[in-house]
Amino acid sequence: MLNITMIGCGAIGVAVLELLENDPQLRVEHVIASAGSETLVEQRLASFKRPPQVLTALPADARPDLLVECAGHKAIEEHVLPALERGIACLIVSVGALSELGLVERLEAAAARGNTRIELLPGAIGGIDALSAAKVGGLDSVDYTGRKPARAWKNTPGEQVCDLDAIDQATVIFEGSAREAARLYPKNANVAATLSLAGLGLDRTRVTLIADPLSEENVHHFEARGAFGGFEMSLRGKPLQANPKTSALTVYSVVRALGNHAHAISI
Ligand SMILES: NC(=O)C1=CN([C@@H]2O[C@H](COP(=O)(O)OP(=O)(O)OC[C@H]3O[C@@H](n4cnc5c(N)ncnc54)[C@H](OP(=O)(O)O)[C@@H]3O)[C@@H](O)[C@H]2O)C=CC1
Ligand SMILES: O=C([O-])CC(=O)C(=O)O
Q: What residues sit in the active site (predicted)?
């Protein structure tokens, strides 16, 4: 059985815990919450058969088999880097954090010192296997468009571009590089960063973000061209009720990745 520590217990974290409850090979022992949010998180976990212990930092003597981040960009610096230094393998969903200059190199150095690994999860998108394989032969272009219902762009710079409550048609709120998208939209452009890191890099991947009042889905579309040929994919994700910014597939992506570490056959 794998002993897991989970960072963050919001929309993704709670849904992952629900799905893992009956897996005898995976056990989340600790959940790391933001300081001051411990009681709230304990309440969220009250109905679980064996709720994980809620802490604000990994105890010095704790040695989980895996640490999985489901919290947000700041958690990478705060929890993932120190865990890697301690030799704990980490899985992360907040891939957009790697858009900060130098962070990729710091994560690699921490993992090398800890003799461990960091795994960037596909989250709300698919096709990362094909895109990163295509990169081996050389890519010419990768274009990504993220389209979400208008409410998913609340409390983002999109509010300065248009009135999200008043728009009656799909409106482009951002065009630029994946690096800039991930910086400006930390809760909405992790997919842009993931596609970039698998493909052409954060500065050469072109990103368009759209607020669409007529859509109920988070639609991720990308097109890649290169020596391998061409590849186009459109994924229409259902948003989580607990957080309309986040697609349900992100939860399943975490559960799949953890299962692949624990089960005899991985796919
Ligand atoms: N790769 C992908 O495809 C996707 C990635 N994501 C990433 O996943 C993150 C989480 O998504 P979601 O669960 O929907 O968001 P929620 O806001 O519902 O939950 C995040 C939880 O993490 C907690 N948290 C935030 N920072 C820290 C920290 N430093 N240490 C411990 N806990 C922390 C928050 O607590 P509090 O509010 O009390 O700080 C909150 O309870 C997003 O911010 C985004 O970066 C999301 C969707 C798709
Ligand atoms: O969940 C999604 O649809 C994608 C998302 O928020 C992100 O890319 O950060």
A: 220
